[in-house]
Design goal:
Layout: E1 2-6, E2 9-11, E3 19-20, E4 22-26, E5 29-34, H1 36-45, E6 51-54, E7 59-62, E8 64-69, H2 71-77, E9 81-82, H3 89-103, E10 111-116, H4 131-137, E11 142-146, E12 151-154, H5 156-162, H6 166-173, E13 177-179, E14 185-190, H7 191-201, H8 206-222, E15 225-230, H9 241-253, E16 260-266, H10 270-278, E17 290-298, H11 328-339, E18 345-349, H12 352-368, E19 377-380, H13 386-394, E20 398-401, H14 406-409, H15 413-417, H16 419-422, H17 428-433, E21 438-440, H18 451-460, H19 480-487, H20 489-494, E22 512-515, E23 533-538, E24 541-545
Parallel strand pairs: 1-6, 2-7, 8-15, 9-10, 10-11, 15-16, 16-17, 17-18, 18-19, 19-20, 20-21
Antiparallel strand pairs: 1-4, 2-3, 4-5, 7-22, 11-12, 12-14, 13-14, 22-23, 23-24
């Protein structure tokens, strides 16, 4: 099938031809990009039968590519108790009480809630604990997870179901579990321990996973997303990566998978990474619809939970430097194992200590095995100083960042890390100016994958929520062109797919979107937040229309 799209305001993100007004799509590919006259000549010379679509001068962009999220977790989250915006522990209790009454759960089924943030509480600015849950959940095992997904709370039934007790917890999990003054467990669990709980309680089988992915992909299309780079393995039962890829393959084989999913494979230690490659998984395994993008490694927590690993104690809590997930030697071994198989790593690093360790491990891998040169990246890359950013450039490390994070983090970063370090963090303009490849993601469901919120944060450096507008480091504002390239071309570069997608260019996959206003010609910055996706196309097929 051949389709001629005319009368468009097409921003290609391809510097060799930045603007066009016509497209020809044939067999899922951009066959021609340029002028209407040129398109008609192209069609005439090929003696093609075609249909015509009028773009009505709407803005046309390449499909957005979210460079880091958790798509399966997002799909699952739609079934959990939404605690986002709760202003108190009392409100959390009421929301859970309503859910338990409606669901009529048994003692063998888990109840999950997500999205609470103690920084927004108006009663007590503390983490909830098991005592806040026990009387309203009874014998139903319950887990409620903070908005950052790095801290959770189990009720007493949940602790029992997971098999966690005071005798074994400290030995097995150290500072990833919280204790009361009397030595009993508080119910608060963090980082890898939280991940173990989530993996254990995941009840999704293959048919469940297929159904929620099929449904949730249309939410992504409504935001203009045609590709996502997603960390999903931890949200399958017992971290079963084989199951995840079987699901993708079967959905693709049945032509039910339209969203392009690049898997960031979270593997917890060096032995599991070796097992993964021993099973013949490799970088690029799969096809254009689903593939292995990289090995994901988690080195620290979140700034909001004070589990991000800092070189110095927290400015507002001198008793902690956060949580460091690995020793340097352990991290070196994991990165080298992936590097030596020609597979990039995408390392979660938020605190400056985690950033330093990550860069040390990548440098170690490059020096130890210079025969491979995969595109290693750092997910989040939040707390930085000038030297850390300089090292990112020297080591050619990608930054997979989430602009929307500053909506909340601008309210806490100075308190957490102090003014000096806060003034050199979330430094995306500095990175781009230095030639570092910066791509945009949302970490959904930590944040919504609303693309316009992300763009707004990047080009204004202003908060979206709250009654008063504030600006965080205005010198780090991006131009609209830079921001959209970070969401399209750079997203493709991050997964090594810039030759097949990321720009509207002849020969590339026909993934594109239509918007209801021109982002390059707005009357005010606030219009960004009111911009909507009119249509989304994947491989030339319309998968969404407003």
């Amino acid at each position: 099938m051949v389709t001629f799209y005319r009368n468009g305001n097409i921003h290609t993100m391809d510097d060799s031809r930045p603007l066009a007004d016509a497209l020809v799509v044939e067999d899922e590919i951009f066959a021609y990009v340029g002028t209407e006259e040129g398109a008609l000549e192209f069609l005439k010379n090929g003696n093609r039968n075609y249909e015509v679509v009028d773009l009505n001068k709407n803005l046309v962009l390449p499909g957005f590519n979210d460079s880091h999220m958790h798509f399966v977790n997002y799909a699952k989250s739609k079934e959990k108790v939404n605690l986002t915006g709760a202003k108190s522990i009392s409100e959390i209790r009421e929301l859970i009480r309503e859910k338990t009454s409606a669901m009529k759960l048994s003692g063998t089924s888990w109840l999950e809630g997500i999205g609470w943030n103690h920084d927004y509480f108006t009663d007590e600015k503390r983490f909830p604990n098991k005592f806040d849950l026990d009387d309203i959940t009874g014998e139903i095992p319950t887990l409620i997870t903070r908005a950052c997904f790095h801290v959770g709370v189990l009720n007493s039934a949940g602790l029992k179901a997971f098999g966690l007790n005071k005798e074994t917890a400290r030995q097995q999990y150290g500072n990833q579990v919280d204790f009361l003054p009397d030595g009993e467990l508080s119910g608060i669990v963090k980082e890898n321990l939280l991940g173990d709980v989530k993996s254990l309680i995941s009840s999704s089988d293959k048919s469940d996973l297929k159904e929620i992915i099929k449904t949730a992909q249309y939410d992504a299309f409504a935001q203009g997303l045609t590709s996502v780079q997603s960390d999903d393995i931890g949200y399958s039962p017992n971290n079963n990566y084989d199951l995840i890829f079987r699901v993708f393959k079967e959905l693709d084989d049945s032509h039910d998978l339209h969203l392009r999913i690049g898997e960031q494979c979270l593997l917890k230690d060096e032995s599991i990474i070796k097992e993964f490659f021993g099973k013949k998984y490799r970088y690029g395994f799969g096809n254009n619809q689903y593939r292995v993008n990289c090995v994901k490694i988690l080195t620290d927590g979140s700034l909001g939970a004070r589990t991000a690993a800092l070189r110095n104690p927290y400015n507002d809590d001198p008793g902690t430097c956060g949580i460091q997930m690995f020793t340097q030697d352990e991290l070196n071994g994991m990165v080298l194992e992936s590097h030596s198989h020609g597979c990039p790593v995408a390392i979660h690093a938020i605190g400056d200590k985690a950033m330093e360790m990550t860069l040390d491990s990548i440098e170690y891998a490059k020096n130890t095995d210079p025969s491979h040169n995969p595109r290693h990246g750092i997910v989040h890359s939040q707390i930085t100083d000038e030297n850390l950013i300089k090292r990112m450039k020297e080591l050619d490390v990608l930054a997979l960042v989430q602009p929307i994070f500053i909506d909340y983090d601008m309210n806490i970063v100075y308190d957490r890390v102090g003014e000096e370090l806060a003034s050199t963090s979330y430094a995306w303009k500095t990175m781009i100016n230095m030639g570092i490849h910066v791509s945009f993601g949302t970490d959904c469901p930590v944040e919504s994958f609303n693309a316009m919120n992300n763009l707004y944060s990047a080009v204004t450096r202003k908060n979206i929520t709250g009654s008063q507008k504030k600006t965080y480091l205005p010198n780090e504002k991006l131009s609209m062109d830079e921001a959209i390239k970070a969401y399209t071309l750079e997203g493709a570069y991050a997964s090594g797919e810039e030759n097949i997608k990321g720009t509207i260019t002849s020969g590339k996959l026909a993934d594109f979107i239509l918007l209801d206003r021109d982002l390059f010609n707005l009357n005010s910055e606030e219009e960004i937040l009111n911009t909507h996706i009119l249509e989304t196309y994947v491989g030339g097929k319309k998968v969404y229309s407003i």
